[in-house]
Amino acid sequence: MKKIEAIIRPEKLNDVKVVLSDLGVNGMTVSNVSGFGNQKGYTQIYRGQEIVTRLLPKIKLEAVVSSNKVDEVIAAIIKTSKTGEFGDGKIFVYDVADAVRIRTGEHGDAAL
């Protein structure tokens, strides 16, 4: 099993959720986060003062999938969320030792 953690643009969330659901990803966790990378934020003028905003709103999507679905899920996230501009995000993949469904006590892939 692998945990896929994707940092994406907020406006791409619904499209990514639909694609992952179509691939059979049964569960995911979505969090509103802030951050910056190459995008570096932006500058705006508010009441005559220049304000530098470095932390931009992003979405962190986390899902645990079977090892045989990892490449397919990553390709789907990239295809759906890519704009070609700075700030499209990143995908991180982690090994998961075990998963346990609390309600039934199932372990491993059966718990997904």
TrEMBL record:
- Gene3D superfamilies given in the database record: 3.30.70.120
How is this protein annotated for GO cellular component? cytosol
What InterPro entries does UniProt report for this protein, alphabetically? Answer: N-reg_PII, N-reg_PII-like_a/b, N-reg_PII/ATP_PRibTrfase_C, N-reg_PII_CS
According to the UniProt entry, its GO molecular function terms are: ATP binding; enzyme regulator activity
Could you tell me the Gene Ontology terms of the biological process aspect for this record? regulation of nitrogen utilization
Superkingdom in the source lineage = Bacteria
The family note in this entry says: Belongs to the P(II) protein family.
Record-given protein name: Nitrogen regulatory protein PII
